[in-house]
Amino acid sequence: MRMLQLIQRLASAARILRTDDSTQIQVVQVEILGGEIRNVQRLQDYGITSVPLAGSEGIALSLNGQRGRTVMIKADDARHRPVDLEPGDTCLYTHEGTVVHLQKGRKVLVYAANQVTVKSADIVFDGPVRCLKTLRVADLITGEKGLDVSGAAATINEATISQAGNLTTAQGTSVDGHRHTDSEGGNTSTPI
Asked: Three-state DSSP class for 176?
């Protein structure tokens, strides 16, 4: 009979009541079936960590069937988990809807309602980059092999370059067909 009880205690469904993430191995307070409440370590996969919300569910594993040696090995939260992923997809997510979705077709979707910040000494994009909305640059844009900007009109320091290539200064002077008087009194055109 004792062996049967140990086997029955090996794994239990558990509901997380509280999480303490201040320790090297996270500690969760869980309610195991039958209303038993325990503080147990939550083992996570190397390189990935999370803080599950109260109400998340998982598996509590009692080593050798001993409740005093219980650890939490999995946690999930059906209230917030993205659904309808394709076979092979992987997704990191939060309860607020921030998502990093590794999709089939070798695509990555990053969705954040407010902000994405990348901090590095050097960021390399090895491929074309498209910006579908506003691009703000706090420092300098350089083109080692030239700089090609195409599309609609562009504004740089309040000067405008039209789609046709006409430059109008911030003061409103257009250089398209603009004429200067040379030192001998003749008119010259400024070619574009």
From this structure: coil
